[in-house]
Design a protein that fits this description.
Chain lengths: ~80, ~230
């Protein structure tokens, strides 16, 4: 089973990298860029019997390592 | 001194300040520290103080300190801290202690996006701890900072708890002791440069007291921490 975990900063948490990218996009003259927030994507291949098992494994993975839940949220999508 | 302080410095792949810490510990205690490797499962027997040095453990992959916080040796560090053992994390070591859950909060990218490497004044907020007993509360000390991700962040309830319980160890300030504005190098909430655990046996701080122990490099204000620990 393949899953994609997306980790993003919680709203309200300052994102200097996103701000820098936003500035660079504007400097390139790309129209309509209002705001950029940077996150991380993890593509994970799993040995899991079913989606419920995968869900358990991935929420452990996110809580224990992939996200720092003080400042980050995570979302899991399955292929 | 009854019994010399036995110290251990943990080295992760990418640590680079272990030599500086070792020099400061040797100067204060008269004994060279032992070194523990990230893959070890135990600290050297009889360790009184364990230090996580600065650097870029695991290349800062994922988040600063995130991988190191899950290394085998950290189980031993956690057990040591839970026994009340003295534990110090400097710079990347502070990031590791936060990621390991031994200290609250998280160190985010500097608000002004720059890596800052400069001398920095700090105000000692609480001198009634083994780490700061050679300082006075309110004393202004000059040490060095060198980090890109030192912006201390914590939720409002956690912040209120730190402030209420005197767990803010040091605050960034200017030479006159004024807090805020340009004196805050990284955007840390309440200008927090270091925090204690609830039992005051774990300290994490971004600045490098170990680099200000010799007049040759511009000051000796960092000695107080190591002298206090060794006393």
């Amino acid at each position: 089973m393949k899953a994609r975990v997306t980790v993003t900063l919680k709203s309200g948490v300052l994102d200097p990298q996103g701000k820098a990218i936003e500035g660079a996009l504007k400097a390139l003259g790309i129209d309509g860029v209002a705001k950029v927030r940077q996150g991380k994507v993890f593509d994970i291949e799993l040995d899991a019997g079913d989606q419920a098992a995968a869900q358990r494994q991935l929420s452990q993975a996110c809580e224990k390592l992939l996200a720092n839940t003080i400042v980050e949220d995570y979302a899991v999508a399955y292929e | 001194m009854s019994k010399p302080l036995r110290t251990a410095v943990v080295v992760f792949p990418g640590s680079n300040r272990e030599g500086d810490i070792a020099r400061a510990l040797r100067q204060a205690s008269g004994e060279a520290p032992a070194f523990a490797w990230h893959a070890d499962r135990q600290l050297p027997p009889g360790t009184d103080l364990v230090v996580l040095p600065g650097g870029f453990s695991y290349g800062d992959y994922l988040r600063c300190g995130a991988i190191a916080a899950r290394a085998h040796i950290m189980d031993a560090v956690r057990a040591h801290a839970e026994r009340g053992g003295l534990t110090l994390g400097v710079c990347n070591g502070f990031q590791i202690l936060c990621e390991a859950g031994l200290l609250p909060g998280v160190l985010m990218r500097n608000a002004r996006r720059r890596f800052v490497c400069r001398m920095q004044h700090l105000r000692v907020e609480n001198a009634a701890t083994p780490f700061a007993r050679r300082y006075r509360a309110g004393q202004i000390v000059k040490v060095a900072i060198a980090h890109g991700e030192g912006n201390f962040t914590i939720d409002p309830a956690g912040l209120a708890e730190l402030e209420r319980d005197g767990r803010v160890a040091f605050r960034y300030c200017d030479a006159a002791g004024a807090v805020g504005g340009e004196a805050n190098p990284n955007g840390s909430i309440n200008a927090i440069a270091g925090v204690y655990s609830a039992r005051f046996n774990v300290l994490g701080l971004m600045p490098h007291p170990e680099n200000l122990i010799d007049p040759l490099v511009g000051g000796i204000d960092g000695r107080g921490m190591f002298d206090g620990l060794a006393a």
